[in-house]
């Protein structure tokens, strides 16, 4: 007769445990793969954010350098203007000196009239 040997209860139990372990291992593997994928996604997102921050930092540094350069140029222009103003004041004072000493007091119309009257007598 062609009888197939039947499995013992212990063998069935071992096979069930083995299958359960395989299923559990596959579930753990799936969770790990999902976790790995999430970590890759998070890492990519962090790299993107880091790149954006670096770019913004570079832009801010460049703006700061431009502002510092402009401040320096402004300070130089102010210094040049102060020097030029001082030179112009000195030149003006030199031009005014002879004029001030040569100015005669103006005669008032009354003085001219009386001087004219007295001179004709």
From TrEMBL:
Protein name per UniProt: Uncharacterized protein
Organism: Polarella glacialis
Coiled-coil segments on the chain, per record: 14-98
Domain of life where this protein originates: Eukaryota
Keywords, alphabetical: Coiled coil
Keyword Coiled coil: yes
């Amino acid at each position: 007769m062609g009888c197939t040997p039947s499995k013992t209860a212990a063998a069935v139990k071992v096979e069930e445990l083995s299958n359960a372990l395989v299923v559990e291992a596959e579930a753990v593997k799936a969770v790990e793969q999902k976790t790995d994928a999430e970590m890759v996604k998070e890492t990519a997102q962090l790299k993107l954010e880091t790149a954006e921050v670096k770019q913004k930092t570079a832009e801010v540094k460049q703006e700061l350098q431009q502002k510092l350069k402009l401040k320096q140029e402004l300070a130089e222009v102010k210094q040049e203007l102060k020097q030029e103003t001082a030179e112009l004041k000195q030149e003006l004072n030199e031009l005014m000196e002879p004029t001030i000493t040569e100015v005669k007091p103006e005669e008032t119309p009354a003085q001219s009239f009386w001087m004219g009257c007295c001179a004709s007598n």
